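name: query_chain
kind: protein
chains: 1
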Amino acid sequence: MINTAFQVYSKSTGASLLGPKQISSIFVGVPGLCGQGPKSPNYSDPIVLYDKKAGRWFVAIIAANSSFSTGNECIAVSSTSDATGSYHRYAFSFGTNVFNDYDKLGVWPDAYYGSYNLFSPSKFLGVKACAYQRSAMLAGATAKAICFMTNTNEFTLLPSDLDGATLPPAGEANFFVDLFSTGALHLFRFHVDFTTPTNSKFTGPITIAVTPFVQACAATGTCIPQPGTSDQLDSLGDRLMFRLAYRNFGTHESPSGQPCRKNQCGSIRSALVRDPQSQCNASRISAGHLNQWSHLPLDGEHHHGQGGGHGPWIQQIQQHDSPHGRVHRQGAE
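structure:
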């Protein structure tokens, strides 16, 4: 998936099986903004995930009106494990003159979770965290969405996205984390109840201190060079990079994320310690241990925007299933 297009390849041979096609082609015939079709330029911020437990593909993209003042979230879940086959399609609205920017999503046993930076035409409204009814979407049935708004002090929350074969403990809430400041993370917990929606809760924040850092491009907003042009890119150093990769190691649960900082990109991995004597209680989760790293540019030269050379940018991180929970990262340079 690149920008607003996708292509499906054979894992065994590398041959193209489908596409390239516009992601919006999946939603042709869906009423409203999501169904504008491949010729419309009003799509943005695609996400693709694999629901490992169900063996399904999850595709999401924002659809907007021509002024990008109103947005919908378009979500498609493959009806089988075949990415070239049919999809169950959904459109979720946030209201007129509300744009759901920078969508970030994660797979969890009880729901698909998402977050959005909401904007009116004149201001930032806050972050909306949503749980989408996974069981219904896997079956192609009408799906509920249960959402909570934060205040405007939060920005770009990442929902935890399940890695590995070991599921979270039964009834475990989804974790949402944002980079609250250059010295602290905020952690929230989202417990959803689709049967009795009023029992759903979005609790937090728990503040997790991190080693203070200087945000990349903090002075100018843009400092990432591109080959062949003087136009520079935003580092997005004011937020965590997608995904918040979660793995259950049995003795602890560990979500990992990654911010970008001046000269380096860093990684954080928090071991969330559960109190087995307490259930569905915000106090049962504590940041029992926090590992932090700073990654120097991969070729030993200067970081982007700091005198040239190559360096990590917009990276993703995930954890190995070894007892030590090694982390792996990938990104653009």
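note: The chain has a mean pLDDT of 82.
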